[in-house]
Amino acid sequence: MATALTRGGQEWVPSYLQSIDYEVCIGCGRCYKVCGQGVMAPIEKPFEGDDDDEDDMGNTVMSVASPDACIGCGACARACVKNAHTHVTC
Length: 90
What we know:
Blueprint: E1 4-5, E2 11-12, E3 16-20, H1 30-34, E4 40-44, E5 60-64, H2 75-79, E6 85-88
Antiparallel strand pairs: 1-2, 3-6, 4-5
């Protein structure tokens, strides 16, 4: 597991973004805006099933576009009002 020290000498363990739950994400973009590493990107919500009514068209959610760019700061999780993010420590 990777560990580091804060400027104050406290131990800190990075928690890396693993996934975003498309069913929970409302596409507000808060996590996208606070991420300085370009880890996430907006996408059209994946749709499963029959879409005869086309009522699910145009729903934007966030996706993990560049997981290797994540530095484990957790800013995205703190910004998410729906707790749609899953993080892991390595």
